[in-house]
């Protein structure tokens, strides 16, 4: 029975990751067509700086796996979890504010906007990742799979809606990088809100 459950969990994770991969391929193929050359270049700059955002959890999310790995959800001390996540929430919020303030004080033009967006992205990405790692630690793979599917759906939505607006309704000629990055960050905000609702 345990082996069947284990294989089912593995299949669920693989299937959800496959769906997420397909949505990311869609983004990779369609997004350059939606953005002009400068816009796509600015989006890639954001993604370059955004790769460093995951370093700013300072190992906290890895510690969640170590501390709670293999435990049953009912056996967890909710007060300890609440204190840990409150601390991490405040830490990541402070980091986001610092990045945004440095961007406002030290940069101008597009780099000011991009780095402010990176600060906001850092907060949503890392806190959402902490909840994801907690779900993996307590072996709630069904939730992890559903959240991956939701992320894939949001990625597809962020491409399809502008695509329809441009090519069918002719509302604008091209998608701006600021609009797409805002939608991209909003997707992580939605994922985080869902996790907070579930674990509250």
Q: Could you characterize what this model shows?
A:
It is a single chain. With 200 residues, the chain is mostly helical. It has seven helices and no strands. Helix 2 packs parallel to helix 7 (177-199), helix 3 (60-68) runs parallel beside helix 5 and helix 5 (109-137) packs parallel to helix 7. The protein is globular and about 55 Å long.
Q: How would you concisely characterize the structure shown here?
A:
With 200 residues, the chain is an all-alpha fold. Helix content is 82%, strand content 0%.
Quickly list its features.
single chain
How far apart lie the N and C ends?
31 Å
Major sheet description: none
Number of strands: 0
Structural class: mainly alpha
Average pLDDT level: 87
Question: Mind sketching the topology for me?
Answer:
Elements: H1 2-34, H2 37-50, H3 60-68, H4 78-106, H5 109-137, H6 141-167, H7 177-199
Helix pairs in contact: 1-6, 2-5, 2-7, 3-5, 4-5, 5-7, 6-7
